[in-house]
């Protein structure tokens, strides 16, 4: 999502990476409201040309925070720094005028014309800097004298060297004076840098809400609820393949929720999508859903995939258990976290793995921790909400089921599930994948024997 933001300036790209995780309803609401205002601006056809011009100007903005810091610290600026400051100030003035002309007030830039006037005594208004003659009659006279003497072949070299020394000293005094004159505008310069980056980021965020059909979430004080939540990355991949992504509804309440379902039923995608939406929300972004009400959390704890660490010498199970323990300690410490764990204890034996899943679900329910845990284990008895991916729908689609069209035969929606057993679709999926029939026939013989043993 962040990588797909159409940021124009290098300044904004760097500041984007330093945006804070927001912890209060007020700051989140403020960011969401700004995005909504900018979204409306982008959808106003009369402002299209102005927005295009602003984006062109933003593309020219450089990250001169180092120079701005030297201004703040009352350092003497060199020619390159004075040039950077002049070029940025000119751009900031032009962007400010465009914003004012279109009555766009969601972001405002301070007036840097006094800074430009200091650095542009000849009023040329071009992004170029030179210690101009206009800064000092003495400098202008000295330069004229040097030019005349250089044209005279009789002029001794030592005379020219002495004049060059005086010229350098005079230019240095002018740079020092210019730096002193600019220093009182340090607040405006830094504010212009931050607000220019903010404008760039806000335009990109607003454009993304339109392009990806994101929604403005409401702030909830209890249940987090998503209507038609979707994963933008998976949706785009499927769209490129001519397939559709099925958005789902999900409620996340205080306490644990177990999600079961067949392989390839999208359980991992659900966790990743919920993690993405919560994180976007806490940074003041719109979220990938048709509607959303989201409760604030202190952090998102996502435990997913193969966590094996060869460098530390830990097995997948050991690494996972250390992560789980860290989550438990955070919950015990009173952290308000959103906990998302995929296939908990999947890398150990089923008997002990099932016990760990039951224990974790019980623990999280007792603590009222918002959490989603996926599992393939049957026989989960823990006190928790239970949901299941609806899964394969035999009558849903006509035609032969293959690995290329399998998603068309799966209903990815979540339904409440009161059963202890989980869907058994492993053999069916293996056959679709083209796994050797002899192997699968033998596996089903063992499966039949196990079922007979359980019935007896």
Automatic annotation (TrEMBL):
Q: Which residues form a coiled coil?
A: none
The record's SUPFAM superfamilies line, in alphabetical order, gives: DNA repair protein MutS, domain III, P-loop containing nucleoside triphosphate hydrolases
Tell me the domain of life. Answer: Bacteria
One GO MF term, please? mismatched DNA binding
Pfam families listed in its UniProt record: MutS_V
Q: Which residues form the DNA mismatch repair proteins mutS family domain?
A: 254-448
Tell me where the signal peptide lies. none
The answer to whether UniProt assigns keyword ATP-binding to this entry is yes
Query: Any one Gene Ontology biological process term?
Result: mismatch repair
| InterPro entries reported in the protein's UniProt record | DNA_mismatch_repair_MutS_C, DNA_mismatch_repair_MutS_sf, MutS, P-loop_NTPase
Keywords from the named record: ATP-binding, DNA-binding, Nucleotide-binding
Q: Which PANTHER family match?
A: DNA MISMATCH REPAIR PROTEIN MUTS FAMILY MEMBER, DNA MISMATCH REPAIR PROTEIN MUTS, TYPE 2
* Name recorded for this polypeptide: DNA mismatch repair protein MutS
What species was this sequence derived from? Butyricimonas virosa
Its organism's taxonomic lineage begins at:
Bacteria, Pseudomonadati, Bacteroidota, Bacteroidia, Bacteroidales
């Amino acid at each position: 999502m962040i990588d797909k933001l159409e940021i124009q300036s290098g300044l904004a790209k760097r500041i984007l990476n330093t945006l804070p995780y927001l912890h209060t309803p007020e700051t989140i609401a403020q960011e969401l409201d700004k995005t909504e205002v900018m979204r409306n601006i982008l959808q106003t056809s009369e402002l299209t040309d102005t927005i295009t011009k602003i984006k062109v100007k933003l593309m020219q903005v450089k990250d001169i925070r180092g120079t701005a810091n030297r201004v703040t610290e009352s350092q003497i600026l060199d020619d390159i720094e004075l040039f950077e400051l002049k070029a940025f100030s000119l751009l900031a003035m032009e962007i400010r005028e465009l914003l004012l002309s279109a009555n766009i007030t969601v972001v405002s830039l301070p007036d840097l014309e006094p800074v430009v006037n200091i650095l542009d005594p000849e009023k040329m208004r071009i992004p170029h800097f030179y210690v101009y003659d206009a800064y000092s009659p003495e400098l202008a006279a000295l330069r004229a004298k040097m030019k005349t003497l250089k044209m005279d072949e009789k002029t001794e070299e030592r005379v020219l060297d002495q004049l060059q020394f005086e010229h350098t000293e005079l230019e240095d005094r002018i740079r020092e004076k210019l730096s002193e004159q600019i220093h009182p505008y340090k607040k405006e310069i830094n504010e212009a840098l931050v607000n220019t980056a903010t404008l760039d980021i806000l335009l990109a965020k607003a454009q993304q809400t339109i392009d990806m059909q994101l929604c403005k979430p409401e702030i909830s004080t209890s249940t987090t609820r998503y209507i038609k939540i979707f994963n933008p990355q998976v949706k785009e991949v499927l769209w490129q393949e001519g397939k559709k992504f099925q958005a789902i509804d999900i409620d996340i309440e205080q306490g644990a929720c177990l999600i079961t379902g067949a392989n390839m039923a999208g359980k991992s995608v659900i966790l990743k999508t919920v993690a993405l939406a919560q994180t976007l929300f806490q940074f003041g972004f719109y979220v990938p859903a048709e509607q959303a009400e989201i409760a604030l959390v202190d952090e998102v704890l996502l435990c997913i995939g193969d966590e094996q660490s060869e460098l530390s010498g830990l097995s997948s199970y050991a690494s996972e258990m250390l992560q789980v323990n860290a989550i438990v300690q955070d919950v015990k410490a009173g952290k308000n976290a959103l906990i998302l764990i995929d296939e908990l204890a999947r890398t150990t034996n089923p008997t002990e793995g099932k016990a760990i899943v039951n224990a974790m679900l019980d623990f999280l329910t007792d603590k009222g921790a918002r959490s989603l845990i996926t599992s393939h284990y049957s026989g989960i008895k823990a006190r928790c909400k239970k949901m299941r991916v609806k899964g394969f729908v035999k009558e849903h689609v006509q035609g032969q089921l293959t690995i290329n069209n399998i998603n068309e035969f799966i209903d990815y929606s979540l339904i409440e599930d009161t059963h202890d057993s989980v869907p058994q679709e492993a053999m069916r999926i293996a056959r679709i994948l083209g796994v050797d029939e002899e192997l699968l026939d033998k596996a089903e013989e063992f499966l039949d024997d196990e079922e007979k043993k359980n019935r007896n």
